[in-house]
Amino acid sequence: MPPLYRWRIRSKIYRWYKELQEVDDAVHKQQLSIAQFVQLNRELQQIENEVNKVKTPLSYADQVYNLMLHIDLVRKKLALSKSASISTKSRGG
């Protein structure tokens, strides 16, 4: 593959990882509001939709699948954070 093509594919993957990192960082903030949970879920869905739309060569499939796994991991962290926040609020904390 020509170097420019490889760079374009990798730059897309890295851009999505940057966006994912921003969501992950936000998940670790203390006491997210419901609106923030909704917004972060939307952002994760948008990243996932973009990744699913792009056709990548087979040689980059592992990177794309790793990215999808990491999106799911951040989604699970967000759900756990939401559950913990609801639990804390219900106990009066």
List the helices and strands and how they pair.
Elements: H1 3-27, H2 34-53, H3 61-90
Helix pairs in contact: 1-2, 1-3, 2-3
Compose a concise summary of this entry.
With 93 residues, this protein is mostly helical. Helices cover 81% and strands 0% of the residues.
Name a few traits of the molecule.
mainly alpha, Methane Monooxygenase Hydroxylase, Chain G, domain 1
Shape: elongated
- For the residues shown, what is the average pLDDT? 88
At the first level of CATH, the class is Mainly Alpha
Please indicate the count of domains.
Answer: 1
CATH topology: Methane Monooxygenase Hydroxylase, Chain G, domain 1
CATH architecture: Up-down Bundle
Main beta sheet, described?
A: none
Question: Structural class, from secondary structure content?
Answer: mainly alpha
Cα gyration radius (Å): 16 Å
Could you explain how this protein is built, in words?
This protein has 93 residues and is mostly helical. The protein has one domain: Methane Monooxygenase Hydroxylase, Chain G, domain 1, CATH 1.20.58. 81% of the residues lie in helices and 0% in strands. The protein has helices spanning 3-27, 34-53, 61-90. It starts with a helix and ends with a helix. The model has no long low-confidence stretch (mean pLDDT 88).
